[in-house]
Write a structure and sequence with these properties.
The protein has 2 helices and 3 strands. By secondary structure, it is α+β, with helices and mostly antiparallel strands. It has a single domain, classed as Nucleoid-associated protein YbaB-like domain (Ybab, Chain: A), CATH 3.30.1310.10. β2 and β3 form a beta hairpin.
Length: 103
Amino acid sequence: MKGFGDLQKMLKNAQEMQEKLQRELSELRVEGSSGGGMVTVVLDGQKNLHSVRLEPEVVSREDVTMLQDLIVAAFNDASAKANDIVARRLGGLGAGLKLPGMS
């Protein structure tokens, strides 16, 4: 059954590629910012948040809503950049695949 052996080899290669991609995504760091750099966040390729940096001027008790909006905007900026990087790395390879965190 030569075909079965080839199938097993293909599946093993696909699993190794998936593990490598997951490792690369977890090591990737993407920075997003908002408010002219007043708020900066760092995400990995799986969109896990690693850090948040706030410039002191943006922290105000009187305008918490603005700060919340800036944090969300910085996260969305980093998320879009991560999506772009991952899409370029995958090229046509990932077309049609649903990867965790890429929705």
